């Protein structure tokens, strides 16, 4: 049994080698979808290559292509039309050296050029990304702590750090609004987190979400108080 399988495999390989093959660049297979070519259209282009390089048929008819691919002639015609419209495929006219008659043949140079251009652009972008220095993401909470310590003129206590973190993580106050509340506390001469917390709560009740709205609210408050 093993010998029979091996013989069948050997005969199959020999037949395949005698049939010949078609070289297809990996670049074409990697990029065809990104170029907007459908799977059916890609297979159609490959079948045209097989006809030209293995079957010595430079201009297979839509009927021949349809039979090989299991499609209708109309479907093949539509796919060929789109490939030629988008300049992936063209038809060249030439004079046959043997018969002296004018003939036609398919030319997929357009596909090669578009795939090469896309591949080169992708490589350029990849090299550009590799050359760019990796920027360490900033930690807004740490920066915010530093701002508070600078205004308070001292290091923050663990409880104070936890309070500020709670504003960001639990209460969902933005970094911008917390910084502006700190400025308001400095302006009022009341440097305490409790006072800043009251400011933030007041703004939250009044749907204040950014520095511009906070500034307008503060000016209105000061005007009413005056």
Automatic annotation (TrEMBL):
Write down the Gene3D superfamilies for this protein, in alphabetical order: DnaD domain-like, Winged helix-like DNA-binding domain superfamily/Winged helix DNA-binding domain
| Residue ranges annotated for the DnaB/C C-terminal domain, each copy included | 145-217
- Residues in DnaD N-terminal domain copies: 25-109
What protein family is recorded?
Belongs to the DnaB/DnaD family.
The name under which this protein is listed is: DNA replication protein
Species this protein is from = Paenibacillus endophyticus
């Amino acid at each position: 049994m093993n010998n029979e399988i091996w013989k069948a495999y050997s005969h199959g390989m020999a037949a395949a080698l005698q049939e010949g093959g078609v070289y297809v660049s990996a670049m074409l297979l990697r990029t065809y979808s990104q170029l907007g070519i459908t799977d059916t259209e890609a297979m159609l282009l490959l079948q045209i290559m097989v006809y030209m390089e293995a079957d010595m048929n430079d201009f297979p008819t839509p009927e021949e292509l349809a039979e090989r691919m299991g499609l209708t002639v109309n479907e093949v015609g539509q796919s060929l039309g789109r490939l030629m419209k988008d300049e992936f495929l063209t038809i060249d006219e030439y004079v046959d050296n043997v018969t002296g008659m004018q003939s036609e043949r398919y030319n997929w140079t357009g596909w090669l050029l578009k795939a090469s251009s896309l591949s080169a652009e992708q490589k350029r972008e990849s090299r550009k990304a590799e050359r760019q220095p990796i920027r360490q993401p900033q930690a807004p909470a740490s920066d915010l702590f530093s701002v508070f310590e600078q205004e308070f003129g001292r290091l923050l206590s663990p409880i104070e750090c936890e309070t500020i973190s709670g504003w960001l993580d639990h209460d969902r106050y933005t970094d911008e609004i917390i910084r502006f509340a700190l400025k308001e506390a400095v302006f009022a001469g009341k440097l305490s987190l409790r006072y800043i917390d009251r400011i933030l709560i007041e703004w939250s009740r009044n749907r204040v979400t950014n520095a511009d709205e906070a500034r307008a609210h503060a000016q209105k408050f000061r005007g009413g108080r005056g």
